[in-house]
Amino acid sequence: MMRIQMADNLSFSRVVLGFWRVDEWNLTTDQLITFLEECLDMGITTMDHADIYGNYTFEEIFGGALEKRPDLRKKMELVTKSTIVYASANVRVKYYDNSEKYIVSQLEKSLKNMRTDYVDTLLLHRPNPFMNPEEVASAFDKLFKDGKVRTFGVSNYLPHEYRMLKSYLRVPMVTNQIELSCLRMENMENGVIHMCMEERIHPMIWSPLAGGKIFTAQGEAEERLRSTLETIRAEIGADNIDIVAFSWLLSHPAGLVPITGSGEIKLVKRPVEALRYALTPEQWFMIWTAVKGHKVL
Ligand SMILES: NC(=O)c1ccc[n+]([C@@H]2O[C@H](COP(=O)([O-])OP(=O)(O)OC[C@H]3O[C@@H](n4cnc5c(N)ncnc54)[C@H](OP(=O)(O)O)[C@@H]3O)[C@@H](O)[C@H]2O)c1
Known about the structure:
Elements: E1 3-7, E2 10-13, E3 16-18, H1 29-41, E4 46-48, H2 53-56, H3 58-68, E5 77-82, E6 84-85, E7 95-96, H4 100-114, E8 119-124, H5 133-145, E9 149-155, H6 159-168, E10 173-179, H7 186-189, H8 192-198, E11 204-206, H9 213-216, H10 220-236, H11 241-250, E12 257-260, H12 265-274, H13 281-292
Parallel strand pairs: 3-4, 3-12, 4-5, 5-8, 8-9, 9-10, 10-11, 11-12
Antiparallel strand pairs: 1-2, 6-7
This protein binds NADP nicotinamide-adenine-dinucleotide phosphate.
């Protein structure tokens, strides 16, 4: 599979596997290992995690697979995120903690849970209005120096939030992980994609099928979208409309890196198949127009 250069010393597979829904996949450890091997065989080597997924339990499910098969680690790039703190018996309200101590200790927990010595990329999960960027810079320096994190980035950051943080860091940021799909186009229009292009970083894309809503959501825009995806599917000779929805992202000149959320190998193959097709500008704007409900000016 095609790969994408995220930094001088780091490339990702062009399609990433996300672990937010790993509980829905209902896999035993051995079945998860088989699934990971099938993904690796088709070239999906980059795995997206977060400390909070599954209320802080999913990194350990993945770690169970690596414990049985430590040889798989060197075939992968691992991405994780932190700084969201969930409310619990001891925590009165959900909040964000970007302190040096919290970032370092959460990353150390992620390493332990995933049975690995390092992650390839650590992302700050959400922008934080109460962040001290000097603490983030110190945490990143320490994790890099200790060999626990190779590269850094953010998720869900707007351009001003990204630039402010960048101005304090002594390590480069390699990505901004953002929501984007045919049904959720806000980040195409609010400056986020443009900032990523200006910074020469490739955005990782979460919920590239709007969490499945592309197939299930009711409404006029959704009906128009499905009908347009079907028209283009027939034109390009693809097997399924989700391939067209992935092509809409993969054709974009910013070099978007979609994260698939499926645990079914036949569905994980769809974004990989989508790499075979490049939408024309006319086809790309047919989808844009179908969702907006009006033509461009
Ligand atoms: N940074 C952030 O703030 C953030 C937020 C949310 C998610 N993420 C990351 O993004 C990843 C993907 O998000 P997502 O799960 O919402 O992605 P998604 O691919 O938009 O949605 C996956 C859902 O769509 C269904 N689906 C139907 N056809 C599919 C197909 N061809 N390919 C994939 N799924 C299909 C899946 O069903 P089945 O389960 O039956 O396959 C699953 O329920 C997460 O795992 C996580 O790593 C990051």
